[in-house]
Design brief:
Layout lengths: L4 H14 L8 E7 L3 H15 L2 E7 L1 H9 L6 E3 L4 H8 L3 E11 L1 E5 L20 E4 L5 H12 L3 H4 L3 E4 L2 H9 L5 E5 H4 L9 E4 L8 E8 H6 L1 H10 L3 H9 L8
Parallel strand pairs: 1-2, 1-3, 6-7, 6-8
Antiparallel strand pairs: 3-10, 4-10, 5-8, 5-9
Helix pairs in contact: 2-11, 3-4
Length: 257
């Protein structure tokens, strides 16, 4: 006996609803600390070539991205500039599994104004420098370490009136690029990016003058629930040889080295 059209349609819809759903999405949404912005472009392309999975990166400070995730933002992973924020997500059950230390970041001083840069910050107290751009330490781990660098040399109090704070490394870079600040303290990965490597002058800051910038990644609870397989693939990819080569190219140190 034949089913009427409406009955057949209902049956087909019922079968489709019961069919297994594909776990791998077309696109992973990855909350990415601003210092990783340019490296992430290369990482995403390599990952896409290997797996066919696209990565859509949202760039901001680690603190702001963490707050968004805690408020329910649908990010599959957090790629943070430190360990503090992934640990916070785990404590609040907004992330699962373990934290991967994927890279160690470095600081540089960068200028578009021809300032005679030095590894030590004494020159920043000069009258020729009116503004010094750093990332906001409330949200950006690189901002915390920029202040640690100035404090290490006893210069924080002297230059504090000159400091202008970007909400992230990305905004800090805009202050430097636009010459709104004569000099700024930013991530080495920025000045090594293809887009910016030939702009201005920079000098790497002594590693012992600030705490190691240990950068961690974690899968969010959303990613584990909605896109478990793809999230795990990208999480594992961050420590693959191809990804490590990209991180080195952007001035990061690999934790095992």
């Amino acid at each position: 006996m034949r089913l009427p059209f409406t009955g057949l349609l209902a049956l087909l819809l019922s079968i489709a609803a019961c069919a297994p759903k594909e776990d791998t999405p077309t696109t992973l949404k990855v909350a990415t600390a601003a210092n990783v912005q340019f490296a992430m472009q290369a990482l995403a392309e390599e990952f896409r070539q290997q797996t066919g999975i696209k990565v859509e990166a949202t760039i901001s400070s680690s603190g702001k991205l963490t707050a968004q995730i805690l408020e329910g933002a649908p990010y599959d992973l957090l790629i943070s500039a430190n360990m503090k924020y992934p640990e916070a997500l785990l404590r609040d059950s907004a992330a699962v599994g373990n934290i991967k230390v994927y890279a160690l970041g470095a600081l540089v001083a960068w200028t578009m104004n021809g300032v005679p840069l030095q590894p030590k910050p004494d020159y920043m107290a000069g009258e020729n420098i009116r503004k010094i751009a750093v990332a906001n330490p409330k949200n950006a781990p690189y901002g915390v370490q920029a202040l640690n660098y100035l404090q290490h040399y006893g210069m924080l109090e002297a230059v504090e009136p000159k400091l202008v704070y970007g909400e992230s490394i990305a905004q800090t870079n805009q202050y430097i690029l636009s010459r709104a600040a004569e000099v700024g303290i930013t991530a080495k990965s920025v000045v090594l990016s293809p887009e910016l490597k030939d702009k201005g002058r920079w000098v790497e800051l002594p590693a012992g003058s600030y705490q190691p910038i240990t950068q961690g990644a974690v899968i969010t609870a959303y990613g584990a629930k909605q896109h478990a397989e793809a999230s795990r693939q990208f999480f594992d990819f961050l420590s693959a040889p191809e990804a490590q080569a990209i991180f080195r190219r952007f001035g990061y140190t690999i934790p095992a080295e």
